[in-house]
Design a protein that fits this description.
rod-shaped
Length: 155
């Protein structure tokens, strides 16, 4: 009889041990899922911040390249020189802004500034190819002056 009681007690102990192990395993799995659920958004936030920082660095690099290109661009005529000077002025203003605010730029602002820098680069390339956006034209005042003189002669 004692032997039967020992076997029953041993079986009860084993069942309790397995139950405690299953309960511990269950809580470990739930805790692991909670850790993963919290860590993935935090990781993605870090990835987003790093991607934004990479965009800012690329913006600064392309900005420096366009600024260097603007000082190096040769102009074929006075109009092209004035157009280049406008781009240089814009780049200088943007340099002041980037110096103060670049670390606070979000992704959308960085993309808009990158677009401005790319457009400025295209303008400088166009000017460098000895082209100009404006045409020089002479104002012909002869017709106007002649019509005024005819009116005066009639009076």
């Amino acid at each position: 009889m004692k032997e039967k009681e020992n076997i029953i007690q041993s079986a009860n102990f084993k069942r309790d041990y397995v139950a405690y192990f299953a309960l511990g395993l269950f809580f470990a799995i739930v805790l692991g899922e909670i850790v993963i659920a919290v860590s993935i958004p935090a990781y993605l936030g870090k990835e987003s911040a790093m991607a934004n920082e990479v965009r800012r660095i690329k913006l600064r690099e392309s900005f420096d390249m366009v600024r260097w290109q603007s000082f190096k661009t040769d102009c074929a005529n006075a109009n092209a020189k004035l157009e280049r000077d406008i781009v240089v002025w814009e780049m200088n203003k943007l340099a002041n802004y980037l110096r103060k605010e670049s670390e606070y730029l979000n992704s959308d602002e960085t993309a808009r500034l990158q677009k401005i820098v790319d457009e400025s680069s295209a303008i400088l390339k166009y000017i460098h190819e000895n082209k100009s956006f404006s045409k020089a034209s002479q104002l012909d005042t002869g017709g106007y002056i002649n019509s005024m003189m005819k009116r005066k002669e009639k009076k």
